[in-house]
Amino acid sequence: MTHALFALLQVADPQRSPTDGMFILFGLIKAVAAFGIYMLCVAYTTLAERRVAGWIQDRLGPNRVGWEGFLQPIADGVKNFMKEEALPGSGNTVLFILAPAMAFVPAMITWAVIPFGSPLPVPGVGLVDMVVADLPVGFLFTLAISSLGVYGITIAGWSSNNKYALLGGLRASAQMISYEIAMGMSTVCVLLLAGNVNLNAVVAQQASQGWNVVLLTLAFFIFAVAGLAETNRVPFDLPEAESELIAGYHAEYSSMRYSMFPLAEYANIITSSSLMITLFFGGWDIPFTQWDNLPPWTVTKTLLTMGLYVFKVMFFVFAFIWLRWTLPRFRYDQLMSLGWKVLLPMALVYITVVASLVLGLDAAGLARTSYAYRGAFLGMNLVFVVLVFWVLDRGRIVSPAFSRLERDRITRLQTAAARSDLLTGKGA
Amino acid sequence: MQANQFHSLAYSFSFYLFGLIALASAIAFVTRKSPVAAAMWLVNVMFALAGLYLMLDAQFMATMQVLVYTGAIMVVFLFVIMLLNLGHPSDLADARGKWPTILALFVGLALLSEVMALNRGNTIERLVPPDLAAKAAAAAAAPIAGGIIGPVAAPLFKEYLLAFELTSVLLLTAIVGAVVLGRRRTDAR
Fold it and tell me: Predicted ipTM?
């Protein structure tokens, strides 16, 4: 009925794909809107970081400019643009100027392929996908682009012609290469389950099968750690470790050009949060219901799914900030051995297990959405989670730390504590 | 007709754009004296090539080009160049002598003429064995399963599985060999 009505009115059906011209127009609108919102979010993540840091450290944080400091990012931006800019005398000036852009742009482009809501029906135009560019290579594109982020940091370190900056740049490139491999490997499991590299297909798979974080917790763990390392934040901020390298790769930068590096970091946080959500937390999917995944598409569905998506992203951005103000920094050899000796072998073993399970269950003729299929994955997942937790924990959380000490040493410690010698420092 | 003309115009424009970028960057790559600058120009070449693959509808190839060459291999190149710390570009002597340069010029000219000769009168189409051409046409016409990766993955893991696995063993051997050679040098010191 409605179809006939639309045909009669010569208006495009909002439940179908738009025409070429409209597709290009809406592509442009989406790109501009996404870019604007993204930049705004990046700016306000800086404020969030400072306020959350204040909250965690029991102080106030910036709250003077505007209501609760809401104009602080703008004030910071103006300040940075007004500052004097210094170029290093004997560095490579061209690359020095290009480097901040090289660091910032990849973080931003990755966002283009991430779906952020159910399709929006626009009367007279058609069904508009809520993703800037729905590439068929989707996920591989994000991997390819995020692997370019290292250039900005490395080139910044090299072109500064400064020992500390160069060391920071070298550390960054070694770190990013190591963790990229673990990151790519951890997502192979997700792609095996989804059977496609398109991110919309990954979201659809999770809508029908349940979120991947429940089915593939270990893959999520590896991806989250590697993602944290890719953003170069504490506990993986070795490239800028101020206690040993001053500020690492951006030691020579000043003014807005310096600002681009922290901004790139925040952009990376938002991007890797979005990726984590899309791959493991169902993207824009509303859990426990199929209502949001099935046509007919409505504006309400789009708004609700987009709202949930934004909420999820905000949670993960908060988690990133929370981690930064909680954990100490790794030592460099610890960082490397975590990447190569723990995460990579773990990911490889996990791929083998997941691939065999997928092959076995498919051969047994089970449907991918059946409870048996999901139950098998859940069981496998539980075994692995318990195993990995037991290995990584080394008796620290499940049993208290002193359980690894000898019995007589514990009694000695206990008597010492009883005499409160430990507090005054005489007991040792 | 209008839309078709527009599309073909946009297509040839993009082709020449990416081609020019690739050529100019390749020339800059060969002529730069600073190793880091040269490496960055090579990165640019890789990107332009990825763009050309994309225009041939080989999206997987394009992504892999960026992921593997720009994202991994060139980063390692850059890493090694920085670790070696060759010094200021003005101090670096050109390692290539006169005769190798002339030889390289002739090899380049020979390759260029070969490409031109092959391009004349559909030589490539005539040189391709008919059964292979038929296979390719059938593959192109078949419905695509498993998204964009399916058509690449299926032959790789079904028809050419043995060759694929042998290649991976070859690569592994090369890696182990590199580690062994690197070790030996430090032991001798």
Answer: 0.76
